[in-house]
Fold:
Amino acid sequence: MHKAMPPLSALRAFEAAARHLSFTLAARELHVTPGALSHQIRGLEELLDVKLFERRVRAIALTTAGKQLYPGLQSGFGQIREAVASLNAVGNSKVLVLSTSPGLTSKWLVPRLYRFSNEFPDVDVRISASVNRANFTTDGIDMAIRYMTLEPAPDRALESEKIVEISLIAVCSPRLLKKHGPVKSAQDLARLPLIHDESLNPHMAAFGWREWFEAAGVGSVDLRRGLRFNSADHALDAAGEGAGILLAFDLLAYDDLRTGRLVVPFRLALPSGRAFHLVWPKGRKANQVAENFRRWIKEEIAALDWRRIKGR
Amino acid sequence: MHKAMPPLSALRAFEAAARHLSFTLAARELHVTPGALSHQIRGLEELLDVKLFERRVRAIALTTAGKQLYPGLQSGFGQIREAVASLNAVGNSKVLVLSTSPGLTSKWLVPRLYRFSNEFPDVDVRISASVNRANFTTDGIDMAIRYMTLEPAPDRALESEKIVEISLIAVCSPRLLKKHGPVKSAQDLARLPLIHDESLNPHMAAFGWREWFEAAGVGSVDLRRGLRFNSADHALDAAGEGAGILLAFDLLAYDDLRTGRLVVPFRLALPSGRAFHLVWPKGRKANQVAENFRRWIKEEIAALDWRRIKGR
DNA sequence: CCGATAGTTGAGAAAATCTCATGCATAAAG
DNA sequence: CTTTATGCATGAGATTTTCTCAACTATCGG
Structure:
């Protein structure tokens, strides 16, 4: 007699672990602890009487049996997820769930979404603002805006399209300049209070004030001083209150620069080598709502007038 | 935000109920009570915020949403089951699981299986003898031998092949005839003790002694008398012990007739209008073991020599 | 050498699932 | 027409499954 079907939760645990080749990442995806996932996998192996993973230190690899089991499960669970997602999509009329960073959300996207809603009043756009990278498999996300290299390596599961390259510019409140006198050189900036936005470059060899001053030809600037924030919108708000000079993403400062709440004390835009990309899953059924959003956001980016801000 | 993925067990409950269009049958397949299944479905509907079934009295029908959700789940769960089954098949080397009735098993199949094992020594044939119709989806069955009409309606999920038509014949021990004198007519039989095998025709408008006597031109036979059994092998054993004349499936009586343990007192073979069919799931990967079994059982059927038994 | 990381494991807690019993509304049988 | 049978619904409590937590092991990286 064939063995009984194993528990579906164990099969799902296996599928996620096989896809990530990591118990830790799979556990995170399934919102359980690695201990729970480890138990599930071991239980599945006992039930099927076969090893599914080779355990190395701090890594796992699929065994032959695991490689044989995985594709059918991946496809099977994928179909189940698609079935549920497409029901939800229909059930919710037109909903677009977009994942992006809090800074981009509050400083650039939200002030513009009313134009998208005016053009598409029946579409419900829902922003999932998070510092963590959204997971398309489990988080119910339709699209994401991600800050990545100019030409990111192709992802087998995702399509992406660059929408705007990012440069770093120094911005401050005009009141700060009034108080401290005009800035004639980058060296002048080095003497003013600095604001550091540490959210710009999490977990990566990062651009910051050091690189900006070097590009401006100013050496030996003491960068230990100054306010530090770990969210871009708070940093920009502090700069707008006159707390100091902030090195910011040009896109995120755009609206404040347009309104005059912020100004560019020294015109040097340092290309970050990265851009915001719109990202969505491959194979996701063609979706008019998502198409409309893509077109709309590209139009919004194209409509930005940088000349009055950066002289270009 | 999209809703969270519902519990897999609830989705499986829905898929089974949608496939059967019955909570009761789905519950039986999943080895739970109908109450459990009802709870699962209702919970799923609340979570998805959509009705999946129209409840009628003693029947259910899929709603539009249910029809939309079902195909992806059916395919998804089907792939998961296939993935597990094919892993088990590999893991178990060559195993063939066959479901059939206890009578056919003990009176005809088991006495012959040694020839199959001799020809295919590495194949492990496992008989699941049950009076209930096996379920290919959940019972781990590779093939079944079922007693069905000569030309059964096509089943969308199953392939079938008729292997032997069945006739009803009267059989008894030669010792019975020695005790009661020779039988010259069917009328003579009507006076002898009868044995009824009530397993021949469960839940169906059935052939039995009444039809047999009518075909023999004998009316008004008192059929209330005689021993009654609800399993064919027990009935055949009782006949072999001289307990009476049994109306039996010719195939099931074959071996006892060949050995002389049973004889045919009056040669009238009444076609039952039904046959044993070999049945297996559509889409199941081509399986050499199953192919071998099909060929083998057809050869065994073809090799039966009915002339010495029925004069044909 | 020390801290970080990934997987393991057992015990107990929490959550999910199930059984059971009762009820309702027909459909079928007598 | 009445009675019985059947399928689904439901709440409460029991049972099972899944999970968390804490401690452990064995590397890897700084």
Chain A is about 45% helix and 20% strand. The longest helix of chain A spans residues 64-91. The interface with chain B takes residues 1-6, 8-9, 11-12, 48-50, 65, 68-69, 71-73, 75-88, 90-92, 95, 97, 126, 128, 138-141 of chain A (CB under 8 Å).
